UniProtKB/TrEMBL annotation:
Keywords: Cytoplasm, DNA-binding, Exosome, Nucleus, Phosphoprotein, rRNA processing. SUPFAM superfamilies: Ribonuclease PH domain 2-like, Ribosomal protein S5 domain 2-like. Residues 12-132 form the Exoribonuclease phosphorolytic domain. It comes from the Eukaryota. One of its GO terms (molecular function) is RNA binding. This is Exosome complex component RRP46. It is found in: Cytoplasm; Nucleus, Nucleolus. Homodimer. Component of the RNA exosome core complex (Exo-9), composed of EXOSC1, EXOSC2, EXOSC3, EXOSC4, EXOSC5, EXOSC6, EXOSC7, EXOSC8 and EXOSC9; within the complex interacts with EXOSC3, EXOSC8, and EXOSC9. The catalytically inactive RNA exosome core complex (Exo-9) associates with the catalytic subunit EXOSC10/RRP6. Exo-9 may associate with DIS3 to form the nucleolar exosome complex, or DIS3L to form the cytoplasmic exosome complex. It comes from Strongylocentrotus purpuratus. Belongs to the RNase PH family. GO terms for biological process: nuclear mRNA surveillance; poly(A)-dependent snoRNA 3'-end processing; rRNA catabolic process; rRNA processing; U4 snRNA 3'-end processing. One of its GO terms (cellular component) is nuclear exosome (RNase complex). The lineage of its organism: Eukaryota, Metazoa, Echinodermata, Eleutherozoa, Echinozoa. The keyword Cytoplasm applies. InterPro entries: ExoRNase_PH_dom1, ExoRNase_PH_dom2_sf, PNPase/RNase_PH_dom_sf, Ribosomal_Su5_D2-typ_SF, RNase_PH.
Length: 220
């Protein structure tokens, strides 16, 4: 397995950073950066929901993905579905029936692992909003190149030569798979190898979450 050339270890990902409460109007917000990739997420709610979208037994979760430039298309709709399905899984939506949790994700810079960074930004924003969650979620990306070379946290440039790119979202409680997205194709054995790399990368993200929360709570 090969790590990103920016790193010096096969179990490291590009440098991670975050900024919480970066916008005043939403109930929660966060910027998540990984290498040169940067995503901002804002969370509103639980709040009022339109009657035609209200669910009697749980909150309605909506996700709007905004590209860096241009208008949303098929790519953005696919990202919205993945982010929404992931967030719905970890949110305690049954505590807030007939309400809405709205998540806005803004792409700032895409230098690789955009979907993973978007999920991580949304998770930090939900934590910042104080919405009850079953657990947190971390997402990561791994690619398989030529000769079955595995690259953890590949850059956008590296994925141009990928045979397969896997993005996986893992929960913090059971460390089980919540959602995954794959571009390209691979064998079952290769998939398990990719998943193993993604899980190692997600562990690094969970570690970052803990450190970020400790820094936030320690502020006067």
């Amino acid at each position: 397995m090969t790590s990103n050339p920016e790193n010096n270890s096969s179990v490291e990902i590009r440098p991670i950073g975050s900024l919480q409460s970066c916008i005043s109007k939403p109930d929660g917000s966060a910027v998540f950066t990984q290498g040169d990739t940067s995503v901002m997420a804002a969370v509103y709610g639980p709040g009022d929901v339109k009657p035609n979208k209200a669910l009697m037994d749980k909150a309605t979760v909506t996700v709007t993905y905004k590209p860096k430039i241009g208008i949303s298309g098929v790519r953005e709709k696919a990202l919205e579905r993945m982010i929404r399905n992931t967030c719905e899984t970890v949110l305690l939506t049954t505590l807030f029936p007939r309400s809405s949790v709205d998540i806005i994700v803004q792409e700032i810079q895409d230098a690789g692992a955009l979907l993973a960074c978007s999920i991580n930004a949304a998770c930090l924003a939900m934590i910042n909003a104080g919405i009850p969650m079953k657990c947190t979620v971390a997402a990561s990306c791994c690619m398989m190149g030529k000769d079955e070379e595995l690259i953890m946290d590949p850059t956008k440039e590296q994925t141009k030569d990928a045979e397969c790119v896997l993005t996986s979202a893992i929960d913090s409680s059971a460390h089980s798979l919540i959602a995954s997205s794959m571009q390209g194709s691979c064998s079952v054995e290769q998939y398990h190898k990719l998943m193993s790399v993604c899980q190692k990368a997600c562990d690094k993200v969970f570690e970052f979450y803990r450190e970020a929360m400790e820094r936030t709570l320690s502020k006067p």
